[in-house]
ABC transporter ATP-binding protein (Streptomyces spiralis), 279 residues
Amino acid sequence: MSTPVPVPGRASSGGIAARARGLTKAYGSGETAVLALDAVDVDIARGRFTAVMGPSGSGKSTLMHCLAGLDTVSAGRVWIGDTEITGLRDRELTRLRRDRIGFMFQSFNLIPTLNALENITLPMDIAGRGPDAAWLDQVIDTLGLRNRLTHRPSELSGGQQQRVACARALASRPELIFADEPTGNLDSRAGLEVLGFLRDAVDNLGQTVVMVTHDPGAAAHSDLVLYLADGRIVDEREHPTAEAVLERMRLFAGGATRAAGPSLGTPLRGGDGTAVGEA
């Protein structure tokens, strides 16, 4: 009897918040195609903090964008919970992202004319539904924003603005939070605060977080690190330390990596040797 091949990030008894099978993303076509993701299989465990790391051009942000429905896939299938999103129409996909997914980015994307509370509730206001008051209070208090709710972004520090962005991602109680380099524009102290709040969101609020980062210290806040290289998941580590992550990342140093974007026109080939996009 053959032994099943484990899928990276295999979910435990808590269930699967998102998954992908054969996820492939190519930019361009024919001999100039650039392969950003190469037949990736991955499970994102519910109620856990997963970090995605890899060298520049490894496909880590592309993986997050495809899992979140922010980018289309060239091949393969993606699910959020039990819903396959790869076949959804634009309107259905927009509704799913609004109702079931929270987002944090390196840029805070706050509306300068709205105060902190209005920025936090904006996605639900646009959807025409009010927040769960008890949950919103819990999020605000967990993130330490109670005395900043009437302040506009210009009156907040960078760390406070990212906390508002974190609260906005949490406010609708989404199934997943995707965070793309959420500490990239912060100093070390503010970055540690935001990472602590994401950790609290998982431990105390029961959220699921997927974070793309290049920082071993940030990845050390996660439950699981997935390592990408050349558009594939090549390793994973449970309960990482910053030192262990840094040591693993050093193995990538100096190695050739594929670029996850159309600006580098190196032809890339799949496992069968066929250039991506060829018939």
